[in-house]
């Protein structure tokens, strides 16, 4: 049973930026000096999508925006573009959450796949229109597919280790009545 106490919600709201910082730290470590032949999955995107689908109250929009703006700056991406697209995608995912109906994991995964694909393609399209130099399309598609393939592992890890579970209908009703 998920805990819906205000203290737990605030702890998890603070845990999300903390986990994001850990992911960014390991992403920035210079472990290999050769250019990569493949793009690793975007763990930060998978994490925020998993949390937005399972517990939207743990990832407020401002937290998502600030976290991804910081990631844009650290990863030397155009500032604010990925943050804007991820906020839109998470808002879409949060609107799809139906607290009174349990959905199967495959349905959740398909919804997340649509959101990740939209973020990837819109990012690529906007950068192309603005004339920004981009990595090859193959690398972008590899990263998108890798992110979609790692999503179940991120969701299971979030659920088992961090307790980010979907709310039961009774808990959703109690949370909504506050």
From TrEMBL:
Task: Provide a GO biological process annotation.
Answer: regulation of cell shape
**Where is this gene product found?**
Cell membrane
- Keyword Acyltransferase tagged: no
What residue intervals traverse the membrane? 12-31, 81-97, 109-130, 136-156
- What's the main place this protein lives? membrane
Keywords from the UniProt entry: Cell membrane, Cell shape, Membrane, Transmembrane, Transmembrane helix
Q: How does it sit in the membrane?
A: Multi-pass membrane protein
GO CC, sorted alphabetically, is: plasma membrane
The similarity comment for this entry is:
Belongs to the MreD family.
Recorded protein name is Rod shape-determining protein MreD
């Amino acid at each position: 049973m998920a805990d819906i106490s205000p203290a737990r919600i605030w702890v998890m709201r603070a845990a999300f930026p903390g986990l994001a910082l850990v992911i960014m730290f390991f992403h920035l470590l210079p472990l290999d000096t050769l250019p990569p032949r493949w793009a690793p999955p975007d763990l930060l995107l998978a994490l925020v999508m998993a949390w937005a689908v399972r517990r939207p109250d743990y990832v407020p929009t401002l937290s998502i925006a600030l976290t991804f703006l910081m990631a844009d700056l650290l990863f030397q991406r155009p500032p604010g573009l990925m943050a804007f697209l991820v906020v839109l995608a998470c808002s879409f995912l949060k609107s799809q959450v139906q607290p009174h109906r349990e959905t199967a994991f495959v349905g959740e995964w398909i919804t997340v796949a649509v959101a990740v694909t939209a973020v990837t393609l819109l990012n690529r399209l906007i950068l192309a229109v603005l004339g920004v130099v981009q990595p090859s399309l193959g690398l972008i598609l590899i990263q998108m597919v890798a992110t979609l393939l790692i999503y179940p592992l991120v969701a299971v890890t979030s659920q088992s280790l961090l307790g980010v579970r979907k709310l039961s209908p009774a808990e959703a009703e109690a949370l909504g009545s506050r």
